[in-house]
Amino acid sequence: MKDWSAAVDQQFEHVLSGFADVPVVHAMRYATTGGKRLRAFLVRESARVCGADVARSIWPACAIEALHAYSLVHDDLPCMDDDDLRRGQPTVHVKWDDATAVLCGDALQTLAFEMISDPLCHDDAEVRSALALSLAKASGGAGMVYGQALDIAAETAEVPLTLEQIIELQNGKTGALITWSATAGARLAGADLRTLTQYGDALGLAFQIADDILDVEGDAATLGKAAQKDADAGKATFVSLLGLDGAKRRAETLVESACDALSSYGDDANLLRATARFVVERRS
Amino acid sequence: MKDWSAAVDQQFEHVLSGFADVPVVHAMRYATTGGKRLRAFLVRESARVCGADVARSIWPACAIEALHAYSLVHDDLPCMDDDDLRRGQPTVHVKWDDATAVLCGDALQTLAFEMISDPLCHDDAEVRSALALSLAKASGGAGMVYGQALDIAAETAEVPLTLEQIIELQNGKTGALITWSATAGARLAGADLRTLTQYGDALGLAFQIADDILDVEGDAATLGKAAQKDADAGKATFVSLLGLDGAKRRAETLVESACDALSSYGDDANLLRATARFVVERRS
Fold first, then answer.
1. Fewer CB atoms near the end CB (10 Å): N or C, chain A?
2. β-strand A85-86 against B89-90: which pairing, if any?
3. Where does residue A114 rank: exposed (0-12), middle (13-18), buried (19+ CB within 10 A)?
């Protein structure tokens, strides 16, 4: 995971060095530095188990990290979650300003589509175009942005969300992009998507439950961002709806289904299984 | 142009009706309603003169309008140009709020890439992928966002921009997307891009000079947005650098070169020529 993180960093450095030396590009570099690189790793490992070209999977891996970074930069804006800290560092709008953060996020989204549309990503244009279409569906007004819109609406709703509504919200907000990452390798290899979709769906939900648990149990120093934000805001979370133990049990069950879904890949998928366990055991 | 505008409206209605009934989607519909549809028309007419399927050119035509709309919604934000009025109507952040405007713009950008990656746009994935790659290059950190970043930097610069710097800024901010629109038809038809690139480059610059002239001569009621903003802000414009008459002469010369570039298409390109003239003669 460390080597792949370094490869992702290097690829961003390479791509962004082709841009002009202006603050918005500095902010793009800053926003794509660090982080767990979970999505990039899912792309790589799904590519490997499906027999796709692992070296070239750096393109969709960086694309999904750019898209994820754009969503964080915009999510941290004062008019959205208003967060000052991300990955232990000042957020983009704090380090630069709101206008630069808006443009930085905009350009990172564009960069994601640029990277998966580049012929260096894959020789077959059908694959590149399908990657772009699926990424757009997973991240737009019926995917991630839809989840974020539900999240904003929930803040002013008079009745807290139900479990079903939270699952729908999280499927959009984080689940769709995690599933996209986990299935990218199958798309690159022209393989069937079903197995990895099952894995990705279970993993995505486990990830979000683990996030809610961390929000309760973690501290800001380890998280690198504010803790207890949801509880303080009185928002319904998996923990408030299932209880702390119930949430932990649910996350465990999801990790097991994620791992079970990979049975057809045998031991070759052990790193994907380890990733699923890492997602619920992480401390930040 | 009117019929095509109606077709664009209908296509947006069709596509957006597939999204959930939430404020961010209402804002997307609002932001893609109205406007001159210049870019959509350039896509259509370039498709027609190049012999591409005109009916299916509605996909890239809507894509570029969605991308243009995203840029306006974000550009109007309080932290950017802080505009309350657009096309004679309250801007998205005024009618809803800043968070909805950020998400609305984000999802409109995504929608643009979704529409040109859809197999309904073109049977050949090479064409779809090339459309996506070129759109990303024209609109990202080396294209439109680069131009916007230069524009923001110019606001606090101690020395006004030179003519050369303004041309670079405008090439990014508006020129790249206008050229993309004018060349989209050649991409759809698999034709050579050079002629339409020349036309688009000249048209894009003429368009921006005309905008600067309108900023001086127009009034808010006709423009549907605030007038004299640049002059009031003490920004260098084509008018401040070339004088009003000089700017008008330059725009005329550019329109002539745009029209001349189309000679190989003969009379078939008369609507593209009329569009170039419309761009400098418009009142809003």
1. C
2. unpaired
3. buried
The span from the first CA to the last CA of chain A, in angstroms, equals 16
Question: What value does the CA radius of gyration of chain B take, rounded to a whole number of Å?
Answer: 18
Inter-chain residue contact B24 with A79, CB threshold 8 Å: no
Of B107, B114, B153, the CB nearest to A22: B153
CB atoms < 10 A from the CB of A55, how many?
Answer: 10
Domain map of chain A by residue range?
2-281
Q: Which pLDDT value is given to residue A47?
A: 98
Chain B environment of A118 (Cβ under 8 Å):
133
Give dist(CA A135, CA A129) in Å, integer: 10
What's the Cα-to-Cα distance from B105 to each of A72, B40, B202, rounded to whole Å? 15, 18, 28
CA atoms within 13 A on the CB side of B7: 17
Residues A276, A204 contacting (CB under 8 angstroms)? no
How is domain A2-281 classified at the CATH fold level? Farnesyl Diphosphate Synthase (1.10.600)
pLDDT in tens, B114-163: 999 999 999 999 999 999 999 999 999 999 999 999 998 888 888 889 99
CB proximity under 8 Å: B 221-280 to A: none
Which runs of consecutive H residues, i.e. helices, occur in chain A? 2-16, 23-31, 38-50, 58-75, 92-95, 98-117, 125-139, 144-156, 163-170, 176-189, 194-217, 220-223, 229-232, 238-261, 270-281
Q: With contact defined as beta carbons under 8 Å apart, do B122 and B54 qualify?
A: no
**Three-state secondary structure call for residue B67:** helix
Cβ–Cβ below 8 Å for A141 and B79: no
B70 to chain A: nearest residue by CA?
A106
pLDDT for A223 equals 62
Residue B183 has pLDDT above 90, yes or no: yes
Q: Average pLDDT in the A69-73 region?
A: 98
| Ramachandran category for residue A18: left, alpha or beta (phi over 0 → left; psi -120 to 50 → alpha) | alpha
* Mean pLDDT score of chain B: 93
Number of cross-chain residue pairs from A and B with Cβ atoms under 8 Å apart: 162
> Rounded to whole angstroms, what are the CA distances from B262 to B17, B53, B206, B257?
38, 20, 16, 9
Token pair for B219: 């009034």
Give A2-41 pLDDT, tens digit per residue: 899 999 999 999 999 999 999 999 999 999 998 889 999 9
For residue A228, pLDDT over 70 is answered with no
Query: Tokens for B157?
Result: 């610069």
Answer whether B79 sits within 8 Å of A99, measured CB to CB. yes
Give B88→chain A minimum CA distance, Å. 24
pLDDT at position A187, please? Answer: 98
- CA–CA distance, B191 with A69 (Å, rounded to integer): 37
DSSP H/E element including B166: helix B163-170
User: Vertex A143, ends A137 and A147: CA angle to 5°?
Assistant: 170
